[in-house]
Amino acid sequence: xxxxxxxxxxxxxxxxxTLASCNGYNMTVQQIVSCKDSVIEFRxxxxxxxxxxxxxxxxVVGPIIINNDFDSAKVTxxxxxxxxxxxxxxxxxxxxxxxxxxxxxxxxxxTCPMSKGVITPDPVDITSHVNMLxxxxxxxxxxxxxxxxxxxxxxKAQIKITK
Length: 163
Description:
Order of helices and strands: HEEEEEEEEEHEEHEE
Strand order of the largest sheet: 2-3-13-12-8-9
Low-confidence stretches: 1-19
Protein backbone atom coordinates (compact mmCIF):
# COMPACT_ATOMS: atom_id res chain seq x y z
CA UNK A 1 0.00 0.00 0.00
CA UNK A 2 2.89 2.37 0.66
CA UNK A 3 3.89 2.14 -2.98
CA UNK A 4 0.63 3.54 -4.22
CA UNK A 5 0.87 6.12 -1.49
CA UNK A 6 4.22 7.26 -2.88
CA UNK A 7 2.99 7.17 -6.47
CA UNK A 8 -0.28 8.75 -5.46
CA UNK A 9 1.43 11.46 -3.55
CA UNK A 10 2.73 13.39 -6.52
CA UNK A 11 -0.81 14.67 -7.02
CA UNK A 12 -1.82 18.24 -7.75
CA UNK A 13 -5.11 20.10 -7.97
CA UNK A 14 -7.30 17.38 -6.49
CA UNK A 15 -10.84 18.22 -5.53
CA UNK A 16 -11.50 17.16 -1.91
CA UNK A 17 -14.17 14.50 -1.86
CA THR A 18 -15.27 11.35 -0.10
CA LEU A 19 -14.60 8.32 -2.21
CA ALA A 20 -15.80 4.73 -2.60
CA SER A 21 -15.48 2.30 0.28
CA CYS A 22 -13.73 -0.97 0.95
CA ASN A 23 -14.78 -3.16 3.85
CA GLY A 24 -16.66 -0.11 5.17
CA TYR A 25 -13.61 2.17 5.08
CA ASN A 26 -13.55 5.44 3.17
CA MET A 27 -10.69 7.64 2.05
CA THR A 28 -11.14 11.40 1.74
CA VAL A 29 -8.55 13.46 -0.09
CA GLN A 30 -8.72 16.70 1.88
CA GLN A 31 -5.89 18.57 0.21
CA ILE A 32 -3.19 17.90 -2.37
CA VAL A 33 -0.78 20.57 -3.57
CA SER A 34 2.27 20.07 -5.77
CA CYS A 35 5.23 22.32 -6.32
CA LYS A 36 5.49 24.48 -9.40
CA ASP A 37 7.16 22.91 -12.45
CA SER A 38 7.06 19.32 -11.10
CA VAL A 39 8.56 16.67 -13.34
CA ILE A 40 5.80 14.29 -12.15
CA GLU A 41 2.39 15.93 -11.94
CA PHE A 42 -1.04 14.61 -11.07
CA ARG A 43 -4.12 16.54 -12.15
CA UNK A 44 -7.59 16.21 -10.69
CA UNK A 45 -6.59 12.93 -9.06
CA UNK A 46 -8.33 11.04 -6.31
CA UNK A 47 -7.45 7.94 -4.30
CA UNK A 48 -10.25 5.40 -4.17
CA UNK A 49 -10.76 2.35 -1.98
CA UNK A 50 -12.99 -0.02 -3.90
CA UNK A 51 -14.35 -3.50 -3.24
CA UNK A 52 -14.77 -5.83 -6.23
CA UNK A 53 -15.55 -9.55 -5.93
CA UNK A 54 -14.62 -9.58 -2.21
CA UNK A 55 -11.23 -8.02 -2.98
CA UNK A 56 -10.09 -4.56 -1.94
CA UNK A 57 -8.33 -2.27 -4.43
CA UNK A 58 -6.61 1.09 -4.09
CA UNK A 59 -6.92 3.16 -7.25
CA VAL A 60 -5.45 6.44 -8.38
CA VAL A 61 -8.08 8.08 -10.55
CA GLY A 62 -6.87 10.63 -13.04
CA PRO A 63 -3.78 10.92 -15.21
CA ILE A 64 -0.21 11.12 -14.00
CA ILE A 65 1.73 13.43 -16.26
CA ILE A 66 5.47 12.95 -16.75
CA ASN A 67 6.52 16.38 -18.01
CA ASN A 68 10.14 15.43 -18.83
CA ASP A 69 12.10 12.25 -19.47
CA PHE A 70 14.10 11.35 -16.36
CA ASP A 71 16.64 8.76 -15.25
CA SER A 72 16.68 9.36 -11.49
CA ALA A 73 14.24 9.96 -8.64
CA LYS A 74 15.55 10.29 -5.10
CA VAL A 75 12.53 10.85 -2.86
CA THR A 76 12.48 12.24 0.66
CA UNK A 77 9.25 10.99 2.18
CA UNK A 78 7.72 12.26 5.41
CA UNK A 79 4.42 10.83 6.63
CA UNK A 80 2.63 11.66 9.87
CA UNK A 81 -0.69 10.74 11.42
CA UNK A 82 -2.32 12.96 13.98
CA UNK A 83 0.86 15.02 14.18
CA UNK A 84 3.01 11.98 15.04
CA UNK A 85 5.78 11.13 12.53
CA UNK A 86 5.32 7.64 11.07
CA UNK A 87 7.80 7.63 8.17
CA UNK A 88 10.85 9.77 7.54
CA UNK A 89 12.91 8.14 4.81
CA UNK A 90 14.85 8.68 1.62
CA UNK A 91 14.27 6.29 -1.29
CA UNK A 92 16.08 5.92 -4.59
CA UNK A 93 13.06 5.06 -6.71
CA UNK A 94 15.23 4.13 -9.68
CA UNK A 95 17.55 1.69 -7.88
CA UNK A 96 15.72 -1.66 -8.01
CA UNK A 97 18.79 -3.48 -6.68
CA UNK A 98 18.92 -1.62 -3.37
CA UNK A 99 15.59 0.08 -2.64
CA UNK A 100 12.45 -1.81 -1.66
CA UNK A 101 10.18 1.00 -2.86
CA UNK A 102 11.83 0.88 -6.29
CA UNK A 103 11.24 -2.89 -6.32
CA UNK A 104 7.54 -2.38 -5.53
CA UNK A 105 7.20 0.24 -8.26
CA UNK A 106 8.96 -2.07 -10.73
CA UNK A 107 6.44 -4.81 -9.85
CA UNK A 108 3.72 -2.34 -10.87
CA UNK A 109 5.50 -1.69 -14.17
CA UNK A 110 7.20 1.60 -13.33
CA THR A 111 10.96 1.60 -13.86
CA CYS A 112 13.54 4.19 -14.73
CA PRO A 113 14.21 5.72 -17.11
CA MET A 114 10.72 7.22 -17.43
CA SER A 115 9.65 8.89 -20.65
CA LYS A 116 7.59 12.02 -21.05
CA GLY A 117 3.91 11.14 -21.35
CA VAL A 118 0.74 10.24 -19.48
CA ILE A 119 0.34 7.26 -17.17
CA THR A 120 -2.95 5.76 -16.02
CA PRO A 121 -2.09 3.42 -13.11
CA ASP A 122 -3.79 0.05 -12.68
CA PRO A 123 -5.61 -0.61 -9.40
CA VAL A 124 -3.51 -2.29 -6.71
CA ASP A 125 -4.99 -5.26 -4.83
CA ILE A 126 -4.63 -4.48 -1.10
CA THR A 127 -6.87 -7.33 0.10
CA SER A 128 -4.07 -8.82 2.19
CA HIS A 129 -3.68 -5.45 3.96
CA VAL A 130 -7.37 -4.68 4.55
CA ASN A 131 -7.11 -5.54 8.26
CA MET A 132 -4.56 -2.73 8.59
CA LEU A 133 -7.14 -0.13 7.57
CA UNK A 134 -8.47 -0.10 11.14
CA UNK A 135 -5.04 1.00 12.38
CA UNK A 136 -4.77 3.53 9.56
CA UNK A 137 -7.89 5.48 10.50
CA UNK A 138 -7.23 9.16 10.97
CA UNK A 139 -5.71 12.10 9.15
CA UNK A 140 -2.46 11.49 7.31
CA UNK A 141 -0.10 14.26 6.20
CA UNK A 142 2.29 13.29 3.42
CA UNK A 143 5.22 15.36 2.17
CA UNK A 144 7.25 13.95 -0.71
CA UNK A 145 10.14 15.72 -2.43
CA UNK A 146 11.87 14.09 -5.39
CA UNK A 147 15.08 15.17 -7.07
CA UNK A 148 15.46 14.04 -10.67
CA UNK A 149 18.32 14.48 -13.08
CA UNK A 150 16.09 16.99 -14.94
CA UNK A 151 14.40 18.84 -12.08
CA UNK A 152 12.18 18.14 -9.10
CA UNK A 153 8.75 16.89 -8.11
CA UNK A 154 7.02 17.48 -4.82
CA UNK A 155 3.65 17.17 -3.16
CA LYS A 156 1.98 17.88 0.14
CA ALA A 157 -1.17 15.87 0.78
CA GLN A 158 -3.72 15.42 3.53
CA ILE A 159 -5.82 12.24 3.44
CA LYS A 160 -8.41 11.04 5.94
CA ILE A 161 -9.33 7.37 6.42
CA THR A 162 -12.63 6.66 8.23
CA LYS A 163 -15.02 3.77 8.80
